[in-house]
């Protein structure tokens, strides 16, 4: 095979194909070959920490199931001292081993590939004692062809040496999150014909879908396909591109013939045109077509590919904000980290489904998937649910002078774009987060080069950076700019957001502004009547203060038309091994939902009242049960119009919510002992209520 150069990859392709796997198949994949179970990886793998070499004869193994991380517990227990998350939990080498059988009848005349969806952060793989390769980066897939190493009949031994040690040549170098080591996403065996759609280019699936010239009248898909030929002679192939609507009806088609030289991979391209497309319009109408790519030779099908496509076009107006399909569409949303209490990064589809259910419940329109590429399964969920996605490169806080650093950053950018660029929900590629937040060499040359490469690989999307600095040179490295700002938490009052936004919107090249992070910490066990800003590094993080910060911050954001997007930090509490604050060490408690996803904090309901189409009437401070004072404020989040307050069955008064859905009463009188608080509102002829019990000592 001829090697693929960087030049070969400019404006080139991708997507998915599978066959059998140790986990569930990839969401959009399909295969023509190998009966299920004829070639598969085991459910249980052997695992051992501390293994550095291929010599594992004396290793003591434990049984684990994938996905797996060795940091599920220690990365969220606290104890770290380094704010770059380089200590306080096990960062080092480990080994995974699995044996599997292959039948000659299943693979004869076929090619077999091994695909890892993610291994953190450096992985070296061996099959039957032969090195397959090394991959540097913990968030993207990588694939090897194992046709030559695979035993046609008999037992095959697969060994993976994984290592999450801090390295100055592999991003991220820093971040307010642990780097969970392990094979924490699924592993797949893929069986294909000798002439096939290639799965070998930067972990992609060999098909790239680029939307262009999309409008309410017309839409085009430029579809690039890599066809790979392992035969010793050239192969004549035919490619068919079929677009089907949501009901399965064929609405567009194109065809082409391609001669693939012996032993080479060739990129071919076609244009699929559609008149009067049904546009994908975010959460309001996430309409998806299905693109099929069929590869044939001599009239016989030899490979195929499928992917959902949502046609959309968008732009940012510096004064009026974000527009989707020509209509104003403010990107009110949240940030998400992929870790989950007790599981770390080794989450199943069920945990990802739960995250999506909570994000949809709150009514978010957009989602920043911080600070690294998330799983393909979750991007597919975003396509289906209509969330506009900010996808991010794991370039956090700083760069290094290591000679391989810039190339690793570029390589991880290539992987992110080529593996995930077919997902219509993604509207931007983020190049960095909070650059210079830690000591760093000058980063502008690296960022400018990454920005250039992003446009070469994907001309259809703009780039963005999330900054917390007033460095104009830094903030002009990407097409658009967003700022991480925390008025009311990291200094200043909760009402400081307007001045902060105005200042940054008038700097640089006046492109409009987004707030990529804002928020405050909160413990569901901490409550007080008289709200005041707590010490951020202290152990007292009252839930009421978090709600107050969000109320004032979002009030300002919603009123600023030039603010094209805002992303709450964070949707869920997450691990931060160096933090010693709030009610538990090792946790960043700025989430709207607890780390185990079991408790929605008051601020969650504030946004639900503002964003969701579902009726909301929510009494705040319900967890503040035991009180010393008989006078108390009562605050309600409601999108149901006039709210009636009752205390111990007696009506106290009625009030209408303000422009951000807040209704409140001051100095409500309680009695000694138990008090029943009830609020009522009516929407669409139905009464909506919420109740709680407060006890005055």
The second-level CATH architecture of the domain at 33-194 is Sandwich
**Count of DSSP strands:** 39
For CATH, the homologous superfamily of the domain at 33-194 is named as Galactose-binding domain-like
Distance between the termini: 79 Å
Summing up helix and strand content along with how strands pair, one would put the structural category as alpha+beta
Strand content: 35-45%
| The CATH class of the domain at 33-194 | Mainly Beta
Low-confidence runs: 1-37
Helix content: 10-25%
Rg, Å, rounded: 27 Å
Number of helices: 10
Question: What does the average pLDDT come to?
Answer: 93
Q: How would you describe the shape?
A: globular
Spatial strand order of the main sheet? 22-23-24-25-26-27-28-29
Protein name: Glycoside hydrolase family 2 protein
Signal peptide: 1-34
Domain Glycoside hydrolase family 2 immunoglobulin-like beta-sandwich: 210-312
Domain Beta-mannosidase-like galactose-binding: 95-168
Task: Summarize the entry for a quick read.
This is Glycoside hydrolase family 2 protein. By secondary structure, the protein is an alpha+beta fold.
Task: Please explain how this structure is put together.
- The strands form 9 sheets. The chain has an 8-stranded parallel beta barrel, surrounded by 4 helices.
- The chain has 10 helices and 39 strands.
- Helix 3 runs parallel beside helix 4 and helix 5 packs parallel to helix 6.
- Among the domains are: 162 residues, Jelly Rolls, CATH 2.60.120.260; 71 residues, Immunoglobulins (Immunoglobulin-like), CATH 2.60.40.10.
- Strand 17 and strand 18 form a beta hairpin.
- It has 697 residues and is an alpha+beta fold.
- This is Glycoside hydrolase family 2 protein.
